[in-house]
Amino acid sequence: MTDATPPAPDLAGRVALVTGASRGIGLGVARHLLERGASVTITARKRPELEEAAASLGAPDRVLAVPGNAGDAAARAAAVDATVERFGALDVLVNNTGINPHYGPLVQADLGAVSKTFEVNVVAALGFVQEAHRAWMGAHGGAIVNMASVGGLRSSGVIGAYGASKAALIRLTEELAWELGPTIRVNAVAPAVVRTRFAEALYAHGEDEVAGRYPMRRLGTPEDVAALVGFLVSDAASWITGETVRVDGGLLATGST
């Protein structure tokens, strides 16, 4: 299980922006970075949920909530600019926002839903990188983590459009790492099924059955993913860029689908 020991405050003085952070993995990442000393901006579409999430984090002097749709260029710019204005920097960007509006065979997929999946999961992530680069990282450096998925590393069946978008995000991560080094590091993490509302459809029919396919015999938690993100944006990972790191309880090691 996850280690209950509080993380060291090794990110003190740094500023992070976490997208899709009103709940689930994004909120877990924001909490972890906050506990390690960073100031954190969280953003998501729904203002009430976002404000509730911000309140749950405590430390109002180090938490900023900026509502906005990741697919909206103006909203992306607003979140980045508000972060720099409030905290005076933007050292860490975590592109966590993701959607999966299509469930089923790709040959029957509504192409509008597929386009929207790529627009939010890939294009919006690049948009946030561009804004962060413009506002701070281009001149000062930083670390970026994109939230991919094991679905981007193998065929993903009924969530094929989502998996294809995450494969594109992994490729985007590699391109950006090459382009933005040496001052900006860009990595991705690839979770398997994590116990969140977003992934609930993948285990609601029987969590024990799904977890039984994993060598670790449990599903992931937001804290599992957050700890990896925290490592990748820290100085301990200063020679790691362009990588996609699995956090999957050993699922892909089994070769199962």
TrEMBL record:
<dbReference type="GO" id="GO:0016491">
    <property type="term" value="F:oxidoreductase activity"/>
</dbReference>
<comment type="similarity">
    <text>Belongs to the short-chain dehydrogenases/reductases (SDR) family.</text>
</comment>
<dbReference type="InterPro" id="IPR036291">
    <property type="entry name" value="NAD(P)-bd_dom_sf"/>
</dbReference>
<protein>
    <submittedName>
        <fullName>NAD(P)-dependent dehydrogenase (Short-subunit alcohol dehydrogenase family)</fullName>
    </submittedName>
</protein>
<keyword id="KW-0560">Oxidoreductase</keyword>
<dbReference type="InterPro" id="IPR002347">
    <property type="entry name" value="SDR_fam"/>
</dbReference>
<dbReference type="InterPro" id="IPR020904">
    <property type="entry name" value="Sc_DH/Rdtase_CS"/>
</dbReference>
<dbReference type="Pfam" id="PF13561">
    <property type="entry name" value="adh_short_C2"/>
</dbReference>
